């Protein structure tokens, strides 16, 4: 019986059908996946993308935040922003809160991670205690510290007990800003600790063994093995903490309200005060644009600088 | 059959909707523990009892002012709400004019100019009239041998504070905490500014404040007085961190002589020491050729949303609140004059009655920021005041800040 020879057009048809079937299969899988993330996409569009563009639009108006009437004022809000002393103060404070907190969170977070990566009794308790402040609402944290630092608070009570004079801790700009950085550091250094712990546990022991064999001491091993191989964790931790620090709001609101005067405002709290307090929603939106650009620029810069030093192993 | 079923179904739905009670929401800026809130709540309960098919929710919105601003932006407002001094400048865009109500002609002349816009429209029922001077603790003043009614100028006031300081007490509790209590410092300006800029018939800045040509270097003496009080030690020791609650507590405990607040400070002090002796005096003048005066404004003023879906019921409830028994009750609770006058309306200020008698005849002026400044400047007043107290800004910088905000808001 002769072999059945398929005509070329039939072969091409078969191949086309096979491709189509395979394509339809892929298309079917693709469509199912699309539908699965539609709700998340919808929420993202409604609560992130739309408000983002709406905020930019409002930045070009003189809207007071509640009136039915407003005018488009072109770049007026941005030109006022460029010369506003209070915005400059808030921008500087934002950078202090962001970079100041981040620096101390990395140093302390890594120190705790190195310590709590050792084998000893109670290290789980230690890790839990270090991480616990992260779980507290930032507003609650701010108010807790307010009750400690206020004029008739716990700290001044202790000072008075030893015969000292009570201090207005939150009335001096420098002291208040330092305290805000300290409280934010204390609250979120647990995040850095967790990230660094994960990073440390992913470093293969053989590198340390090789370093020991080569005669490297503890500091040399830390500098030559631990740090370079921790760069992905450093990048992650710095990015997360920097974004959190740059958009700091709750602690400032609870502790000082941005005062005294405008001295401790961040861009986020100044935006809030300008919108609700001064009823200048258009100008507040312009501050919001500045805040977005600031966070975006520094995040991209941090990522670019850190990526260069990343080591693959 | 299907069509009959649909008709029956639609009929049932219509009947359910018709039978559903009319629900009103009344938003008050007073906390639920405040006497005004409880009074209005019980009035609402009585109205509901007398009007079948009506439900009224009396609510205190958290962070009232900002919540109301958000609701206005969304055009989603309660049926009725209190306007806390801003019925004309801030809320009138969303309120129904009430000139056609039966009680309109009875509005107290003391409050009428304050609640009337340039076109003669009134947007609220004023249930009482805030009549404010400077609150004092009588026991402290007696101990320091200070006669509050002999105080005519701010220099006399500072001399009185010196006497109070000499007996180991604080002259003035200003509160002072930035954040939620910064309004306590803004109050200082609201009390002091008129004496420098408004009350003196021979020399004032009323016209320039209203037409936007005000020279803000004239604000510097007002700001300087605050700094002088601080430097001379007349303020509470925690003058940048004192809270409103502490102002009340200190007044009740006899730690302070004076408070630059309305008579609600007396209500606050009485919570801690109901047996204390408190009174109020007129606000001193800035110059010797001027005389002390009082401040008036809205305290409990209620308006109706212009787009209210239950307009008829809301207006009926508002007219019910305007009845003499209800007006008298709310005014008595705040120990201030009634917002409506005439037959049946009677002011009963309780143990403050002798003080109201003493200040009869003094001129009254509206709250400074509500009439002479654009809406939105209150916050700047508060923030610059706290900044001055904490030395984070100078008097000139504070005046400059006020000028910048003023110019921006006037230009809108």
Report on this structure.
The complex is a heterodimer of chains A (313) and B (412). Chain A is an all-alpha fold. Helix content of chain A is 75%, strand content 0%. Chain A has helices at 8-58, 76-83, 85-116, 123-135, 138-149, 154-161, 173-201, 205-213, 218-229, 231-246, 250-255, 267-277, 281-308. In chain A, α1 packs across α13, α3 packs antiparallel against α10 and α7 runs antiparallel to α10 (231-246). The termini of chain A are far apart. The mean pLDDT of chain A is 88. Chain B is an alpha/beta fold. A five-stranded mixed sheet of chain B has the order 2-1-3-11-4, covered by helices on one side. In chain B, strands 7-8-6-9 form a four-stranded mixed sheet, with helices on both faces. The longest helix of chain B is centred in the N-terminal third of the chain and has 18 residues, at 2-19. Chain A binds chain B through residues 62, 64-69, 71, 80, 86, 150-152, 166, 168, 170-173, 253-263, 273, 276-280, 283, and chain B through 65-66, 68-70, 72-73, 75, 90, 93, 177-180, 182, 237-238, 240-242, 375-380, 382-384, 386-390, 392-393, 401, 405, 408-409, 411-412.
């Amino acid at each position: 019986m002769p072999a059945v020879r398929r005509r070329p057009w039939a072969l091409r048809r078969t191949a086309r059908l096979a491709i189509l079937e395979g394509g339809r299969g892929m298309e079917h899988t693709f469509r199912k996946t699309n539908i699965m993330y539609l709700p998340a996409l919808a929420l993202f569009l409604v609560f992130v993308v739309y408000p983002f563009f709406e905020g930019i639009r409002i930045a070009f108006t003189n809207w007071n935040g509640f009136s039915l009437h407003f005018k488009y004022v072109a770049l007026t809000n941005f030109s006022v922003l460029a010369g506003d002393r209070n915005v400059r103060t808030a921008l500087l404070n934002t950078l202090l809160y962001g970079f100041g907190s981040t620096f101390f969170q990395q140093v302390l977070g890594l120190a705790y991670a190195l310590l709590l990566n050792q084998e000893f009794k109670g290290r789980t308790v230690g890790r839990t205690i270090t991480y616990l402040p992260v779980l507290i609402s930032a507003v609650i944290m701010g108010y807790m510290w307010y009750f400690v630092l206020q004029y008739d608070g716990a700290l001044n009570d202790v000072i008075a007990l030893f015969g000292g004079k009570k201090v207005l801790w939150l009335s001096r700009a420098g002291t208040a800003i330092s305290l805000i950085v300290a409280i934010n550091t204390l609250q979120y250094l647990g995040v850095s600790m967790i990230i660094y712990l994960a990073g440390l546990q992913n470093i293969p022991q053989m590198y340390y063994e090789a370093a020991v064999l080569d005669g490297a001491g503890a500091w040399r091993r830390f500098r030559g093995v631990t740090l370079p191989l921790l760069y992905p964790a450093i990048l992650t931790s710095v990015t997360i903490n920097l974004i959190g620090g740059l958009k700091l709001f709750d602690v400032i609101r609870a502790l000082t309200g941005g005062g005294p005067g405008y001295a401790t405002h961040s861009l986020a709290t100044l935006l809030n005060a300008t919108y609700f307090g001064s009823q200048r929603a258009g100008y507040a939106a312009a501050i919001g644009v500045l805040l977005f650009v600031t966070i975006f620029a520094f995040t991209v810069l941090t990522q670019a600088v850190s990526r260069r030093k990343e080591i693959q192993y | 059959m299907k069509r009959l079923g649909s008709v029956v179904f639609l009929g049932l739905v219509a009947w359910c909707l018709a039978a559903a009670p009319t629900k009103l929401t009344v938003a008050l800026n007073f906390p639920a523990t405040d006497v005004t809130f409880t009074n209005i709540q019980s009035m609402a309960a009585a109205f509901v009892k007398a009007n079948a098919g009506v439900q009224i929710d009396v609510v205190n919105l958290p962070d009232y002012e900002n919540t109301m601003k958000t609701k206005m932006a969304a055009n989603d407002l309660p049926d009725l709400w209190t306007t806390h001094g801003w019925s004309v400048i801030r809320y009138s865009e969303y309120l129904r004019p009430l000139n056609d109500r039966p009680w309109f002609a009875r509005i107290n002349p003391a409050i009428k100019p304050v609640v009337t816009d340039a076109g003669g429209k009134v947007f609220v029922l004023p249930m009482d009239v805030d009549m404010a001077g400077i609150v004092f603790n009588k026991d402290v003043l007696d101990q320091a041998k200070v006669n509050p009614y002999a105080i005519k100028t701010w220099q006399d006031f500072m001399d009185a504070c010196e006497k109070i300081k000499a007996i180991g007490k604080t002259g003035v509790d200003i509160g002072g905490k930035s954040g939620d209590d910064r309004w306590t410092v803004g109050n200082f300006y609201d009390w002091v500014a008129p004496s420098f800029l408004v009350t003196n018939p021979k020399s004032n800045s009323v016209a320039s404040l209203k037409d936007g040509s005000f020279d803000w270097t004239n604000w510097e003496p007002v700001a300087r007085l605050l700094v002088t009080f601080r430097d001379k030690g007349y303020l509470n020791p925690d003058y940048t961190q004192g809270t409103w609650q502490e102002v009340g507590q200190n007044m009740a405990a006899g730690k302070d002589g004076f408070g630059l607040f309305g008579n609600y400070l007396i209500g606050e002090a009485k919570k801690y020491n109901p047996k204390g002796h408190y009174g109020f005096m007129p606000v001193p003048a800035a110059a010797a050729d001027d005389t002390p005066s009082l401040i008036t404004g809205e305290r409990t003023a209620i308006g109706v949303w212009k787009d209210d879906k239950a307009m008829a019921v809301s207006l009926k409830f508002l007219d019910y609140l305007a009845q003499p028994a209800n007006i008298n009750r709310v005014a008595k609770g705040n120990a201030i004059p009634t917002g409506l006058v005439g037959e049946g309306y009677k002011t009963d200020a309780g143990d403050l009655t002798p003080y109201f008698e003493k200040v009869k005849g003094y001129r009254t002026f509206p709250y400074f920021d509500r009439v002479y400044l654009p809406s939105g400047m209150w916050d700047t007043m508060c923030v610059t005041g706290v900044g001055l107290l904490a030395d984070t800004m100078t008097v000139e910088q504070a005046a400059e800040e006020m000028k910048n905000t003023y110019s921006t808001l006037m230009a809108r």
